Amino acid sequence: MSKSHKDFLSVLDFSKEEVSVLFKEAARLKKEGKQGGAGSLAGRTLALIMQKPSTRTTVSFAAGMAQLGGTPLILNSQELQLKRGESLSDTARTLSQYVDGIMIRANKQDEIEELARFASIPVINGLSDKEHPCQILSDIFTLWEARAGGKIEGLKGMKIAYLGDGNNVAHSLILAASLLGMEISVASPKGYEPEKEFVQKGKVTVLADPLKAAAGADVLYTDVWASMGKDEEREKRKEIFMPYQVNAALLAAASKDARVMHCLPAHRGEEITEEVMEGRQSIIFEQAGNRLHVQKAILLYLLKDL
Ligand code: CP
Ligand code: NVA
Question: Of all protein residues, whose CA lies closest to atom 1 belonging to ligand 2?
Fold first, then answer.
């Protein structure tokens, strides 16, 4: 199938058909576990430029690239000439001649877009201030597998409630839900709602009442209250966000068989209780596990043409 974009910078860079192809590929890779796709990217190199900390994104991309037979280069941006003021555009033009793809975790979406504009190779957004598309693709894959019978149409009408900070993860979730016909409600404290641009691009109900958002939902999704870069606001936010905690009472308002999701890392006792995180409705560690298979499918799609 012909690719709609060179890069994966936003959830909306893939069409519904492309998402369906990627999910089938991820499921095929998952069946073979860590051996899935062995040798498919032999001789290819992926640069991972990291401006912020990461466990899952770095390791799933790096291990995934190695399992596909390629080589990952993990580059802390503090150790590149970027730290000394070299531009992203010059970095992009240089790296394009050495490696076959770049995954970048950056402070700003604009920086990722600049890098992609000047790179002749695929660029993948491994989280920015605006979006976390790889995370959300993998999360929707988790639902596709567990709740939609492995069919893209099976996601239609599924009710997702996102509770908490209207952040990068919320933005990507709004876009994915809209792309795939899922119903999404976001409940956030006043002043912490998702950005207008994403509310307008997607189809979402934004509320202040967490119980209203959770009522009858098939999925409750939450994320940290203070994202990377906002750590100094953590204490202040705790008080403001406490009514949005995903706990047993909130879960009781959702549909009987609702699933609980979190992209991790989590702060138990803040956005989610220990009880719910470790409870039978939590699919949080399945989400984390699926990052590997979905990352591999994205790499195959962008670097090799599935
Ligand atoms: N969920 C996620 O992206 O985790 P990391 O920050 O550990 O990569
Ligand atoms: N919203 C979080 C996600 C971490 C994976 C952050 O940006 O820190």
Answer: 227
What percent of the chain lies above the pLDDT cut of 70?
A: 99
pTM to 2 decimals? 0.97
Sign of CA dihedral 29, 31, 34, 38: negative
Q: Judge whether 224 and 270 are in contact, CB under 8 Å.
A: yes
Q: What is the pLDDT of residues 36-66, one digit of tens each?
A: 999 999 999 999 999 999 999 999 999 999 9
Q: Is residue 2 part of a domain?
A: no
Q: Residue 200's domain spans which residues? A: 135-288
CA of 131 from ligand 1 middle (Å) equals 12
Say yes or no: CB of residue 54 within 6 Å of ligand 1: yes
Residue 247 lies in a domain: yes
CA separation for the pair 66, 245 (Å, rounded): 38
Residue 134 bears catalytic tag: no
Q: Is residue 90 annotated as part of the catalytic site, yes or no?
A: no
Ligand 1 pocket check for 169: Cβ under 6 Å? no
| 120 shares its domain with 229 | no
Catalytic-residue membership of 117:
no
Q: How crowded is residue 83: how many other Cβ atoms within 10 Å of its Cβ?
A: 11
Q: Is residue 92 part of a domain?
A: yes
* Structural domains of the chain, count: 2
Give how far Cα 35 sits from Cα of 21, 64, 67, Å. Answer: 20, 10, 6
